[in-house]
User: Fold these one by one.
Assistant:
Number 1:
Amino acid sequence: MSTVNDSLVIARRNLIRMTRIPEMILFGLIQPVMFVILFTYVFGGSMSIGGSTDPDVYKNFLMAGIFAQTVTFATAGAGAGIADDMHKGLIDRFRSLPMARGAVLTGRTLADLVQTALTLLVLAIVALLIGWRPGYAAPTNFGKVMAGFALLLLLGYAFTWIGALIGLSVRTPEAATSGGLIWLFPVTFISNAFVDSSQMPSWLQPIAEWNPFSATVQACRKLFGDPGLSPSDAWPMTNPIWASLIYSVLIVVIFRTLSVRKYRRADG
Amino acid sequence: MPGAIYAEGLVKTFGDVRALDGVDLDVPEGTVLGLLGPNGAGKTTTVRVLTTLLQPDSGRAVVAGIDVLKHPEQVRRSIGLSGQFAAVDEYLTGRENLQMVGQLYQMKAKAAKVRADELLERFRLADAADRTAKTYSGGMRRRLDLAAALVVSPPVMFMDEPTTGLDPRNRQALWEVIKELVAGGTTLLLTTQYLEEADHLAHDICVVDQGKVIARGTSDQLKAQTGGERVEVVVHEPEMIAGARDVLARYGIAGRGQAEVSVEDHTRMLTVPVSGGAKILAEVIRDLDAVGVEIDDIGLRRPTLDDVFISLTGHAAALTEEENGESTPKDDPGGRGRDRDVAKEAAK
């Protein structure tokens, strides 16, 4: 019994499904592009980043935040997909086959990772088109930029496991979609993603600075050479790359364990 | 030595409901056991326990010589499951579905592809192989589901109501496939609400009701247990039912706890178990005539599993007349159920 092999078979199945429902991919692409444009042009003129109100600075500051938010939205897709699977006859087929127990879930999260990568690619192109310039505030190179994207993908992958647990805990795919999205708003907004967190009320600042999501955003800004690095001396802000890695791996380990256990116990 | 499927004292409760209340089964290798019962009798729960999908609260089960509770992952290598709801991915093509299942049975990708093609051919799905299962008809989906269960030619098969909702032609076709399988040595546990299906396919039958096996044996043994023939009468007018009931009650053989005369008001059909063969028929006709009951139809027939079920549980297998009518193949070679159809035609 091979976990890797079975997971890849299931991942392939989910990717085929995605190509058969192309509107899902399309909506998944339109939403973040819309966010980039709205934030850039609606908020861009009135935001102050590191004391600068130049819209160009905000634009370059914003992208890491939007990228990170986009990858976390995969949570909802993974949750809905798994909830849908769990309530169809197909899951009985899977559970009666001599396959690795976690493969149904791992396969789904891997397929979502591929979709996230695709979304991120399109988003990066749009960002470059409207004026995002890696290296705007500090020198960077191709390798560092790629490392930033790798951290983003890891964050997205970690969050799909949270989605998996939600999908296994609710009764309908619709509930998994809303359940997968609602909490993402506070998590992604109480962070350094869209505003300079040092301007938040003092009681909110530590939450934003220790938010796992903020660590990845800060790490990306550092790797991309974007403006607006948080000057905070909280550990995740001073060591964002390590913090991002540790947070993401921890989320995968915890939520994968919980999800696989729940999947095995599900009596369908 | 226990058979290919063996269960002892299976109990499973869901809240207050005792879905399984001590189920014992023993299916010898290469035979078919028909698990017969109404909705909610515990048929599906039994299958789910035996196929490792559900943990029983207590009891023991052995499938293909392997303890189901101790080594579920080994059991899964030796079984095929075809469920009540076609378990196929509707966004995948027929071929992709079978390949995926083959690979999950740990076949190499290439071997899975070859096997998929074989099965598509055998189940008359080759033309639709590259269409998504979403576009398949109900019968095609069932065939695909059954093909998926047969990817590795498992020695033990479970089919949970394989023909529920199929039209008579597709049902016949599926019966043929099942017979072929069994001829090839597969041990099969089949659940069904359709009495004639169990009659047709199963070597042994277990009648389940409310989580218990209430009778077991061959179809003939069960029928013998229920008693001799029945006289079935369809009267001309609803008002004549009462008179006919009085006459028939005189011929009924009491005993074995069965109701003397059963009446189906809307078809104006009365049934009574009798002993004495064809000459009884003449007497019944004479007596009915004497009290002025006009009859549309009368016949003598052997007990069906329907009768077995009613006499065992005190209620019919939970089917509406419509479902029951639909489920009776019109070209039933054994002639089972033909009398009933005639009666229904007469009632129209």
Note: DSSP finds 13 helices and no strands in chain A.
Number 2:
Amino acid sequence: MIAFEHVGKRYGGRFEALANLDFRVRRGEMVFLTGHSGAGKSSLLRLVMRLERPSRGRILVAGHDIDRLHASQVPYYRRQIGVVFQDHQLLHDRSIFHNVALPLEIQGVEPRESARRVRAALDKVGLLHREKALPIELSGGEQQRVGIARAVVNKPPLLLADEPTGNLDPQLSADIMTLFEDFNRIGTTVMIASHDLALIARLRHRTLRLRDGRLVADEEAA
Amino acid sequence: MSRRPAPPPPRGARTHHTRSSSRFRGWLRHHRAMALDSAWRLLRAPLGSLVTMLAIAIALVLPAALWLTLDGARLLDAELTESATLTAYLAHHVDEAQAERIEEALAAHAGVGRTRLITAAEGMAEFQQALGLADALGRLEENPLPASVVVTPTDPGPDAVRALADELEAMTGVEEVRLDLAWIERLRHLAELGRRAALALGVLFGGGVLLVVGNTIRLAVENRRKEIEVVTLIGATHAFVRRPFLYSGAWYGLGGGLLAWGLLTLGGEWLAAPVAALAASYGASFSLPRLGVDGSAMLVGCSILLGWLGAWIAVSRHLAEGKPR
């Protein structure tokens, strides 16, 4: 699903954020990405989302070199990826329902179909009863679940998450991870950046460890 | 819309036909939603919207008014040119019978439309009447005025008239041909000057409208920066991001255009009476031209277009900043 071939990323010509990354993620796999903050986890995800482009090497997603996508194709590429952000990235002037509906609105999905899918996604994350609320009225854990519902509402084949449990207590974090495992079970490829090593260890999935922009360990699930 | 990348293959087995037609309907739906949404946003901040629209209207009124005035001057010019005549003064020794023959000769000349003979006696009578000097002139022993023929040319163009004058002057019995085209020429030059000034002003003030709308939309973009960032992250096209702002720009343009139309109409009404009085004092009937349906549509259409374009520039500048490095 994702292949990094000797990928490097420099900022401003000097600072080397990522160096010689070479790994593959199979379709339907669930992978953790760990390392200290500043190790390059977010940069790696930004490369996959094509928010940034590699300074060297190639990144293949579903067999296509994403660096060669034309600017006009990038939005359509991003629609195939669900992304969950640490800070949720919800729009505070619209309801939970409309936040989750945003990807479908962008894709021009017919409203009745859209409403059906939004409710299904909200139901999945256990927030169907809050659909009319504004993000500000929800707790941090609930906001994160809204972010997840938005990421999966159009059933993307690839789901990325950047520190999705960053500000949550252990129980809520475990719940969130269970949600990701559920989506992985139905075939979604999932890649989660996290530094919550205790939680990752318990979940037993493949783990890529980054240090100073280099891949220092690639541990298959025990 | 048509350019889609292959990766990764879409799931589900809908046919291409239903996909593209449903996408088209989705596109139309988004247009309608954004048109309404942007109108609603404008109405929610009525004062700010009104100020922007007024700024657009004021920028449009000046060139439009100048253009209208010139349009009026063009009508006047056409009327004046049509009444342009030549006066051929005949030699003193020509008597009445000879004068009639010369008039016939003049009338037969190519390029001459109508002719009217004014005999020496008629000329004197007109002169006395015009000056009210009947007594003084009556004391003259001999009529000092020559007979003359007023010639209306078929081609009222200044070059043609001048050429005709030269030809007529060469005819026997004709002493001198007078034509007073200079002031028509001057009016023409003035009108040309005005036209160019109107064009230059139109371009300048059109640029002003672009700046006004561009700046307003730039602020709106700034206010919705976060929203733009989020929708771009989850796969919104540039067209999708631009759409609400383009509609805002078009609404500003529409409002500004209608206000400009209102100002011009009111201004026309306000000036109509003094203009009519002024024209009457010159013995002419001249009224300010009105915009009419075409002109009104043109004014409002240009305004909408400028609003749309200003918004397009503002949003595109923002989008260009967010390109992946």
Note: Strands of chain A lie at 2-11, 15-25, 30-34, 56-61, 64-65, 81-84, 158-162, 189-193, 206-211, 214-219.
